[in-house]
Design a protein that fits this description.
This protein is an all-alpha fold and 145 residues long. It has one domain (6-115): Helix Hairpins (Orthogonal Bundle), CATH 1.10.287.1700. The chain is built from 2 helices and no strands. The protein has helices spanning 6-54, 61-144. The longest helix has 84 residues, at 61-144.
Length: 145
């Protein structure tokens, strides 16, 4: 009793593991991008506070201009990071879809294997029942003689 497709099932399990690993890596990248996005936002807010403090009292135009440029730079970086986050979310979705497909393929083969095992057990039970019936018939026919 040997399942003919065991090698294929093993390959599908391995493929599913690889897909899960890829999903984990893609989700980790997404988390890092979101942390970076939070850091850019915090830096921008901190710079706004700094510019606000510089605009009180004696105003130095150079410092205000540099602060404004820095805020613009942080805003651009945040926008770039948001674009990267959107792209990474797509990558996560693709990786998740791959995991789902791999899982479906593995489960299909596992169900086929379960049916195969059930059929083999049934065949063995039938063969054993036939042997028992044959022994019983032989014993019964001996007793009648």
């Amino acid at each position: 009793m040997r399942f003919r497709f065991q090698a294929i099932l093993n390959l599908r399990k391995h493929h599913e593991d690889l897909c899960r690993t890829r999903l984990y890596k893609e989700e980790t990248k997404l988390m890092k991008i979101e942390e970076e996005l939070t850091a850019w936002e915090e830096a921008k807010e901190e710079q706004k506070k700094t510019v606000a403090t510089l605009s009180v009292g004696k105003i130095q135009p150079q410092l205000l201009a540099m602060g404004s440029e820095n805020i613009a730079y942080l805003r651009r970086k945040k926008e770039e990071t948001e674009i990267r986050r959107a792209v990474q979310k797509e990558q996560v979705a693709l990786a998740r879809a791959d995991v789902i497909e791999a899982r479906k393929g593995r489960k299909t083969l596992e169900k086929l294997k379960e049916r195969f095992i059930a059929n083999e057990k049934q065949k063995m039970m039938s063969a054993e029942q036939k042997r028992i019936d044959e022994v019983a018939v032989n014993l019964f026919s001996r007793d009648e003689r």
